[in-house]
Amino acid sequence: MLRSMQISASGMTVQRLRMDVIAQNVANMNTTRTVSGGPYRRRLVSVQEDVEHKPFSYHLANSVNSFSGRGIKARAIVEDPTPFKRVHDPTHPDADEEGYVLMPNVDNLKEMVDMLSATRSYEANVTAFNAAKNMAIKGLEIGRR
After folding, report:
1. 95 φ, ψ to 5°?
2. 25-81 per-position pLDDT tens digit
């Protein structure tokens, strides 16, 4: 019972991080000059399964007998390698000699879809966590009778 709550909690933690990174992307979608120079580059959360570091044969042999999952974890926050957008705006202070400005590679539509996906995943983990909690409570109530 506790393992299922741990898995749901790890999912909620990662989805909250995804929502924070998406909010940062949206907030910087017009930032043309960063501390490192150049426009803001979209960031993504790289996620992986949280597994014990044992050989594949161990997991294969034990998968039939028991569930060995431990949830997920954020591996890294990486920059999106897609190219920047070139916008013609000669009045912009960061425009080049030809009047073009490099804009961040943040697409508002992609960010909203990612935010919706992260929100739904978070809600699903909350539902699973509450279901496990309610089962534990019902189990304790059985013991009282």
Report:
1. -70, 145
2. 999 999 999 998 899 999 999 998 877 666 666 656 665 555 556 788 999 999 999
Cβ count within 10 A of residue 41: 19
Instruction: Write out pLDDT tens, residues 106-135.
Output: 999 999 999 999 999 999 999 999 999 999
Q: Residue type at 142?
A: I
Token couple for 70 = 């431990």
Rounded Cα distance, 77 and 73, in Å: 12
DSSP letters for 23-64:
HHHHHTTT----TTSSS---EEEEEEE------HHHHHHHHT
- What amino acid occupies position 102? L
In angstroms, the CA 99 to CA 91 distance is 8
- Measured distance CA(3)–CA(134) in Å, rounded: 14
- Sketch the domain layout of the chain as residue ranges: 2-29+43-79+107-144, 30-41+82-105
Q: pTM to 2 decimals?
A: 0.82
